[in-house]
Amino acid sequence: MTDTQRVVHAYPFSPPDRFKLDPFYAELRRREPLTRVRMPYGEEAWLATRYADVRTVLGDARFSRAASADRDEPRISPRKLEAGLLLMDPPEHTRLRRLVAKAFTARRVEQLRPRTQEVANELVDRMIATGPPADLVQHFATPLPITVICELLGVPVEDQDRFHVWSEAVVSTTSLSVEQIAGYIQNLFAYMRGLIAQRRQEPTEDLISALVRVRDEDNQRLSEDELVRLLTGLLAAGHETTVTQIPNFTYVLLTNPDKLAELRADPSLVPAAVEELMRYVPLGVASSFARYATEDVELGGVLVRAGEPVIGSLSSANRDEEVFPDPDSLDFGRSANPHIGFGHGAHHCVGAQLARMELQVAIDVLVRRFPELRFAVPEEELEWKSGMLVRGLKRMPVAW
Amino acid sequence: MEERHARTRAEADAGGVVGDDWRISVDGGTCIGAGICAGTAPTAFRLVNGVSTPTHDTVEADDAIRAAAESCPVEAITVRDREGTVIAPEP
């Protein structure tokens, strides 16, 4: 089949519906593992749907993110990314990422677990004191990751009402206008510049102060603009995703009562459950952040030409039957679970270990302290977010 | 050193040139296969059955390799100098 004969599919294939993954992905994995797609914005691209191919696209140095800067990259947002780690390749990307990576290792994150448990329990105490129903999004899933990232970075948690609103800009596609998104991001930058100026005057024991020190010791390692963007990215991206995934995971458990019962009977399964939920929940509405081939690459039976963009579908890879037996079923007992829910390669989520720990604590506390947790409204009445990069619930009224 | 000359400049920049400055080891039991090392220093690390493996045990000193060890989320990579002193990750 020559490229000109290939059918170009509109992508995403269908509007998001809860956590259902469009069955067309499975068909493509069988029939046409590299397919041509056109997204609402940007140029036509290849879409890779098999696990092995997606890992190659994300992990192989012959595929570049930096190259997307000069191109009209395929996307579901009107707005293009303008700067940041996700627009860089090694070694430039490495220079910035290594400055923050060590704050997010499993070892460092483990030190934050007791405090995370304490915050989670306090939030549950408050929910119980007020009595049901309560909105799990507002009263638990939002304040938990925000408190943890604030304390790690050194951002005053009492400012959350302001920066949390602005942070929606990083995961918004059409929920906010292009102008609003740009405005909110400028607000975040201005807010972070204020904190940076403060820490320059009076350094404290937090990540903002540590990065300000790096910046002021060696201008070559970190420019002022990079410092602001890096910290803003950690604050915004660092909580938006986990805030969304806590209710997402809770939703899947409440709609799979046998799985929830398994966790209640044996909470030591929680870490395995979190990995399985990371695999199972297709967080993204569509895959994006195409990688551009820097040379001709043979992939999925197709010769991808130098300069062509390839999008790797994490959600499809995570349901690849070649890697995950019975991929559409939720199984906390999988012997191996090499999911790529946090991505793969140089851009693998820098906060993955933190997110894992927070999700483990959140699910563990919910399972232990709410033995009869349930939706306080019929499932069909739950409101889902729209116009975002990610799937998630606006509110989740629960009772117990 | 023919092998070194055969490499492109981009590859040399990414580390992994055979030498005797540093010794790389990866704890396969700890590795979670995130692929950050192979993305950061592609000629020094590759994934074999989903587990990071150094392409050479001993290499020339290269900052990309140190960065890969520092960037490993589970600190599965250890880089030592000739005397056996740990160069990365930081304690």
Automatic annotation (TrEMBL), chain A:
<dbReference type="InterPro" id="IPR002397">
    <property type="entry name" value="Cyt_P450_B"/>
</dbReference>
<keyword id="KW-0503">Monooxygenase</keyword>
<comment type="similarity">
    <text>Belongs to the cytochrome P450 family.</text>
</comment>
<dbReference type="InterPro" id="IPR036396">
    <property type="entry name" value="Cyt_P450_sf"/>
</dbReference>
<keyword id="KW-0479">Metal-binding</keyword>
<dbReference type="InterPro" id="IPR017972">
    <property type="entry name" value="Cyt_P450_CS"/>
</dbReference>
<keyword id="KW-0408">Iron</keyword>
<protein>
    <submittedName>
        <fullName>Cytochrome P450</fullName>
    </submittedName>
</protein>
<keyword id="KW-0560">Oxidoreductase</keyword>
<dbReference type="Pfam" id="PF00067">
    <property type="entry name" value="p450"/>
</dbReference>
<dbReference type="InterPro" id="IPR001128">
    <property type="entry name" value="Cyt_P450"/>
</dbReference>
<keyword id="KW-0349">Heme</keyword>
From TrEMBL, chain B:
<protein>
    <recommendedName>
        <fullName>Ferredoxin</fullName>
    </recommendedName>
</protein>
<keyword id="KW-0813">Transport</keyword>
<dbReference type="InterPro" id="IPR017896">
    <property type="entry name" value="4Fe4S_Fe-S-bd"/>
</dbReference>
<dbReference type="InterPro" id="IPR001080">
    <property type="entry name" value="3Fe4S_ferredoxin"/>
</dbReference>
<dbReference type="Pfam" id="PF13370">
    <property type="entry name" value="Fer4_13"/>
</dbReference>
<keyword id="KW-0411">Iron-sulfur</keyword>
<dbReference type="InterPro" id="IPR051269">
    <property type="entry name" value="Fe-S_cluster_ET"/>
</dbReference>
<keyword id="KW-0479">Metal-binding</keyword>
<keyword id="KW-0003">3Fe-4S</keyword>
<feature type="domain" description="4Fe-4S ferredoxin-type">
    <location>
        <begin position="22"/>
        <end position="50"/>
    </location>
</feature>
<keyword id="KW-0249">Electron transport</keyword>
<comment type="function">
    <text>Ferredoxins are iron-sulfur proteins that transfer electrons in a wide variety of metabolic reactions.</text>
</comment>
<keyword id="KW-0408">Iron</keyword>
